[in-house]
Fold:
Amino acid sequence: MEEGRVVRVAFQQADGELKLRPAVVLKRMGADRDLLVCAISSKLHREMPGVDVVVDQQHPDFPGMGLPFPLLIRSAYLTTVPLSAVQDPIGAVRPETLRRIVAQLTTYLNARSHPRGSPPVPAGSHSMDLAAFGTSRAA
Structure:
């Protein structure tokens, strides 16, 4: 499964129930054939500015995502799923959007990994540098 594909997977909800919902594939995880994905929601009012990505009818990714409604890519709402639990792709995001998702998630995690007012941890040390997730995908 290629990075940037929009797929349907079962996400566990706060009440423990599983709900089939769309997600963006961020990364294949090793030889186990697992995928790291982030959720897609229709609840635009839940946007975390600077973390989530709003895709409405004017967004260049909207026509290719395979969903008929404006949506919110929940960059920090992550789960790892086995490839076997993922339904066929219904669409995709552009490489630029995938890079934006990863960059915003990285910034969010790095900001939360050190106390307010302390300097950011230099890259290459123990910071959460998600740039290693990469953003390449086959055409």
About this structure: The chain has one domain: 5-133. Helices lie at 95-112. The beta strands are 5-12, 18-29, 34-41, 53-55, 71-82, 91-92. Residues 121-139 have pLDDT under 50 and may be disordered.
